[in-house]
Amino acid sequence: MGRMQVGGVSVDWLEQGSGEPVVLLHSTGASGAQWRALVERLAQRHHVLVPDLLGYGATGDWGGNGAFSLAHEGAIVAALLDRVHEPAHLVGHSYGGAVALHVARAQPQRVRSLALFEPVAFHLLRTGDPLDEAALREVSEAAAFVAHAHAAGDADAAAACFVDYWSGPGTWTAMPPARRDAMASRVGKVVLDFQAVFREPVCAQEFQRLRLPTLLMQGDRSPLSARRVSRLLSRTLPAVRTVTFRGAGHMAPLTHRDEVNEQIVAHLAACRPARATAGDTLAA
């Protein structure tokens, strides 16, 4: 494990393997440990870096003034890229996917490719069609409830709304008490994550210039908001390949881990430069 200071916050991160760098970005409420199985696979060919984002895992809380934004998380990715001195592949799930998109748009020259599972770039829905607007209202209402319950001191109600929105009604009550307590303890950061993705001042058309090889994954049982964001990105990103997992929801990187990881491994392999062989010739 490594530790570094980013914006006055102590950031914890895992580093393993060698080769082309890959940065793995976790979802809201999780930590870099979410990617443990994928790290073991990728480290055979890649230099894998896995940070705990602000307020999660062993990384400190954001203590800044003003509005929290994806740029604060992006600073962690930038600091990791400074360490490797070359562009990296970015892999992100949910909130981590939104962070990856932010970094790729802001610093495309530092990114080799993207592999995203339902990035929660809800800000893109503002300029969509009526169904996108309905999806934005749906997730905005969930976010408002989480923020209100947190402000009222009811962390359990806030966390229950968040968990059940993404994983389905009854998921919260079925969770072991220790997991519920852990999620409730992070709900303040959940509120900030929602704020960051809603406030991102970017429309879908700005991604038309992002010509990075992109794997965009989704589940067919995910909430409408996540599916509509994926739809917008699939029609906007110029070099995108989409994969839909049947019978899977938003948490497929956990519930369908092996299938999702297989797609990510294949994507990175497809992005790998072809090696010259003895029979290759060079044009003069």
Question: Describe it for me?
Answer:
The structure is a single chain. The chain is α/β, with parallel strands linked by helices and 284 residues long. It is built from eleven helices and eight strands. It has an eight-stranded mixed beta sheet with strand order 1-2-4-3-5-6-7-8, with helices on both faces. Helix 2 packs across helix 3. The chain starts with a strand and ends in a 13-residue tail after the last helix.
Outline of this structure?
The protein has 284 residues and is of the alpha/beta class. The chain has helices at residues 36-42, 70-84, 95-106, 130-151, 155-167, 171-174, 177-185, 187-199, 224-236, 252-255, 257-271; strands spanning 2-6, 9-16, 20-25, 46-51, 88-93, 111-117, 214-219, 240-245.
The helix count comes to: 11
Low-confidence stretches: 275-284
Order of helices and strands: EEEHEHEHEHHHHHEHEHH
Structural class: alpha/beta
Q: What is the first-to-last residue Cα distance?
A: 48 Å
What is the number of beta strands? Answer: 8
Helix content: 40-55%
Mean pLDDT: 94
| Proportion in β-strands | 15-25%
Rg:
19 Å
Strand order of the largest sheet: 1-2-4-3-5-6-7-8
Reported for the largest beta sheet, the result is: 8 strands, mixed
